[in-house]
Amino acid sequence: MSEQTLFHKIRDKKIPATIVYEDDEVLAFKDIHPKAHTHLLFIAKKDSDFVASIDDLTEATAHVPGLLIRKAQSFAKAHSITGYQLKFHVGKDGGQEVFYLHLHFLSEQKIG
Ligand code: AMP
Questions:
Q1: Does some domain include residue 60?
Q2: Ligand 1 and 53: CB distance under 6 A
Q3: What is the pTM for the complete model shown?
Q4: Cα separation values, 99 from 1, 23, 73, 75, 90, Å
């Protein structure tokens, strides 16, 4: 079994987060140290979709970045956000601190 990260605990509601979107596949919550007016993190929820980092993707998890991007796109449309940045930090040397794959969603526009 893989190590339980901070984002496993947020996913499992063991520690609080400001959740802005959730469905069966994905959870999105506000970054605690926002670097833009709207700074969200999208994670995949299913254990079978768990991957620590882009650097660890396999054939079995190759769909996960696309899933996160598609949900971020839908979220932006639903909230009339017309401009945003999507980022993956990859590895410690790439600024990654939490080893549970997450997509940063940054926008200077507000969630409507
Ligand atoms: P990364 O550097 O890509 O691993 O990003 C991890 C992000 O998680 C950082 O932007 C942190 O500000 C954010 N973060 C850390 N702890 C929490 C928390 N408890 N709730 C929400 N976001 C967090």
A1: yes
A2: no
A3: 0.97
A4: 14, 22, 23, 24, 9
